[in-house]
Amino acid sequence: MPRNTLNSYWERTTFLPKVNHKKSNILDYEDYLIKRWNEGEQSVKNLYKEIQEKGFKYKIRAVYELMKGYPKTIVETMLEIVKVKYYSSKQLSIWLGSFRKDWTDEVPKAYLTRLIDANPVIRKVRNAVLNFRRFMKDKTGEKLMTWCKNILNDEEEHIKGFAKGILSDYKAVFHGFESKWSNGPVEGQVNRLKTIKRQMYGRAIFQLLRKRVVITSKW
């Protein structure tokens, strides 16, 4: 308490008159507020405006104090929001480009089946991709030219660019289908060298890069 206030009380010879704060008549509107609350209007500001139009003359605090314990009936009865899981186009491409027997338990099999059945374009492209994979697996390069021609003659544009790329270097691709040899190990070592060089921010000279490769190989 400030010193001046204390001194003023000390010097008084009589008590200050009691101030009676005028109570609001908010209870007169309680039935209406409960009715509107149960109807779904749970904004105190909106309810305050409504009872103001009905003659309420006091501040909004009275409405807050009265309604702060009201149950949130609307929140309690809201329907549970169903979470929809989305898949990236990359993930869908991997799944759709693989055989059903290779689908693991993590793959949404029912979703993919509905997707394939509902979309003729996806179904057609998927069949073309799976046929291409069969040719690679079975080493049947003689079917490759027919496959490319069918793709180019089809009205769908989705993998025509892929077929054109094969025809532009057809001889090499054909031998890749027919030959038992593969440059996969070479490409793997090239990627390994690139990874090691990236770890040194691309500043590895040949001698240092060689040491890194040799040391890593010993492990």
TrEMBL record:
Pfam families attached to this UniProt entry: DDE_Tnp_ISL3
Annotated Transposase IS204/IS1001/IS1096/IS1165 DDE domain residues: 101-212
Highest taxon listed in the record's lineage: Bacteria
Protein name stated in the entry: Transposase
UniProt lineage: Bacteria, Pseudomonadati, Bacteroidota, Cytophagia, Cytophagales
